[in-house]
């Protein structure tokens, strides 16, 4: 946080200039696509490509090679220092010309840069103006493409030095991956990677690029993990030793030296839980009382981050990731952490995260399946399919996806999807509908077998509970949820401000009936709450009637229930503290 190099200013550019460069972008993009100017290994800022492409390619290469005993994959994650800000303009114009872009368009771009000036604004004060003598402009749409064209020759440069990539399918090899200025170099030995780092050093000097030594890391992937790797291997860039690390976050996904994603799943859960408070505080401050709105906030803020590229890395970790989703609803409703997960999902009409994992994996499956055969994700995909048949292992992404077909009880659709892709939308719908039914049935079966829940076994759960469809105050929603989901030995109830924990195994210390302080005792028997009971509960005299009231769609009945709990808890707290 203290390093200024980690920050970038916000560039404010004239709107007319933005529109003009957008027109140029369309023209130059068409030229690049028609003439294959950008290498296949570049996925940054290109239509129909995303971070998922490179995440899948790297993961696939690891799966392809690490299936073999003793095999290692050597990877350098290269960080260019202020790459966009240090592009040499003369080199850029030359590379645009060599790429076949019309001299007219080059002249227009050059005129924009020759006449561009900038000044800084801080605390409402402006600096003097500066000419832009290097780097691409930030804050407009053309710059990422200009940078991609500038660095597009790096792969050919490596090949011109006799360097080869890491094999994928005995025909195609991958020497590096690019996402804008994020560079990954792949090698199959220490010597190979050091040669490629030397080639990178030459390329960087020729193109006036600077590699940030401190942020450039090396990973040695093997099924044996990280132990002893740093002692056995040394990697150099321009005579500087590069740090070997056990893990690296690449495009938002944490890769570990084993090639597995358990750490990524745990880290995602931790980060999601850390963000619980920001969402619940937003709900509280905004006084949001619509369950639909609360769930939308959860989906847009937490779930989107939780499921980022999850169809690629999360197929084996659905149980770990589920902790974050269920944990959020327990946090939102103030219910105990030991409340069974299945009842929380039923109460909130939420499916397991595994449903979203399967959905994301299917979407990626069909997207890759319909790519051209020249695309790297498709090449890796076909190789994984082949290995699944000839050398099946559990780490293969294809094998992990097939397991979900079995979980969805539709293994009959596997061959149809695998061989020709079929109708992607139809197959996806069939598979997801089936999996949704399976997951719902599993949760309902768990509920029917439950011996710990006090009231929930009497609820139908055919749809979202009525109280969540009503616009009840947040404190009331929590109270109703806590009553509905309480267990036979532990109660966690809240008034408008505080949480009260009651052990139903202990004798009530308020009265002299010598009875355990159960829900039944609190609601119907303890004499100290008689006046509160008569004011709020009316004719509710048993657990069956209480359960029926908690299923009610009447706001008044639910409000009375909340009034009783709030008043009873305050009286209890007062008596206990006397």
TrEMBL record:
Q: Which PROSITE patterns match?
A: RT_POL
Q: Which InterPro entries match?
A: DNA/RNA_pol_sf, RT_dom, RVT-Znf
Q: Which SUPFAM superfamilies match?
A: DNA/RNA polymerases (SSF56672)
Q: Which GO terms describe its biological process?
A: DNA biosynthetic process
Q: Where is the Reverse transcriptase domain?
A: 1-255
Where on the tree of life does the source sit, at the highest rank?
Eukaryota
What's the protein here called?
Reverse transcriptase domain-containing protein
């Amino acid at each position: 946080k203290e390093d200024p190099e980690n920050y970038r200013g916000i560039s404010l550019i004239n709107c007319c200039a933005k529109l003009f460069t957008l027109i140029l972008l369309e023209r130059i993009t068409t030229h690049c696509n028609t003439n294959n100017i950008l290498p296949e290994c570049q996925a940054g800022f290109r239509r129909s490509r995303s971070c998922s492409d490179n995440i899948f390619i790297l993961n696939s290469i690891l799966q392809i090679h690490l299936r073999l005993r003793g095999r290692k994959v050597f990877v350098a994650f290269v960080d260019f220092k202020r790459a966009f800000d240090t592009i040499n303009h003369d080199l850029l114009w030359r590379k645009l010309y060599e790429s076949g872009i019309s001299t007219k368009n080059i002249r227009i771009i050059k005129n924009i840069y020759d006449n561009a000036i900038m000044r800084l604004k801080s605390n409402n004060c402006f600096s003097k103006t500066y000419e832009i003598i290097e780097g691409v402009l930030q804050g407009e749409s053309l710059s990422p493409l200009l940078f991609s064209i500038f660095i597009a020759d790096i792969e050919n440069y490596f090949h011109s030095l006799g360097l080869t990539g890491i094999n994928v399918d005995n025909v195609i090899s991958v020497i590096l991956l690019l996402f804008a200025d994020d560079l990954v170099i792949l090698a199959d030995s220490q010597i190979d990677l050091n040669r490629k780092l030397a080639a990178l050093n030459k390329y960087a000097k020729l193109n006036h690029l600077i590699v940030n030594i401190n942020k450039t890391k090396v990973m040695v992937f093997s099924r044996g993990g990280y132990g002893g790797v740093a002692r056995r291997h040394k990697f150099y860039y321009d005579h500087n030793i590069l740090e070997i690390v056990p893990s690296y976050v690449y495009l938002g996904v944490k890769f570990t030296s084993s090639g597995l994603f358990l750490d990524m799943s745990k880290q995602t859960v931790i980060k999601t839980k850390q963000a619980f408070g920001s969402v619940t505080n937003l709900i509280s401050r905004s006084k949001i009382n619509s369950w639909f709105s609360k769930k939308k906030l959860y989906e847009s803020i937490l779930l989107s981050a939780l499921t980022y590229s999850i169809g690629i890395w999360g197929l084996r970790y659905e149980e770990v990731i589920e902790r974050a989703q269920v944990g959020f609803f327990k946090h939102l409703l103030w219910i105990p952490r030991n409340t069974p997960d299945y009842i929380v999902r039923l109460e909130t009409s939420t499916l397991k995260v595994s449903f979203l994992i399967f959905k994301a994996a299917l979407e990626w499956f069909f997207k890759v399946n319909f790519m051209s055969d020249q695309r790297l994700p498709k090449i890796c995909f076909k190789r994984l399919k082949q290995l699944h048949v000839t050398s099946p292992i559990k780490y293969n992404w294809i094998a992990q996806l097939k397991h979900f077909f079995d979980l969805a009880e539709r293994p009959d659709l596997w061959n149809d999807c695998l061989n020709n892709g079929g109708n992607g939308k139809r197959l996806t719908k069939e598979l997801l509908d089936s999996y949704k039914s399976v997951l719902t049935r599993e949760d309902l079966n768990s509920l029917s077998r439950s011996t710990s829940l006090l009231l929930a076994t009497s609820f139908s759960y055919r749809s979202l509970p009525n109280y969540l469809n009503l616009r009840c105050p947040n404190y009331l929603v929590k109270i109703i949820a806590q009553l509905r989901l309480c267990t036979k030995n532990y109660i966690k109830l809240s008034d408008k401000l505080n949480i009260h924990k009651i052990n139903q195994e202990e004798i009530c210390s308020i009265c002299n009936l010598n009875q355990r302080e159960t829900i039944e005792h609190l609601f119907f028997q303890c004499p100290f709450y008689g006046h509160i009971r008569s004011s709020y509960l009316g004719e509710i005299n048993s657990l069956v009637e209480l359960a029926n009231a908690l299923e009610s769609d009447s706001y008044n009945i639910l409000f009375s229930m909340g009034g009783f709990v709030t008043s009873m808890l305050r009286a209890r707290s007062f008596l206990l503290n006397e």
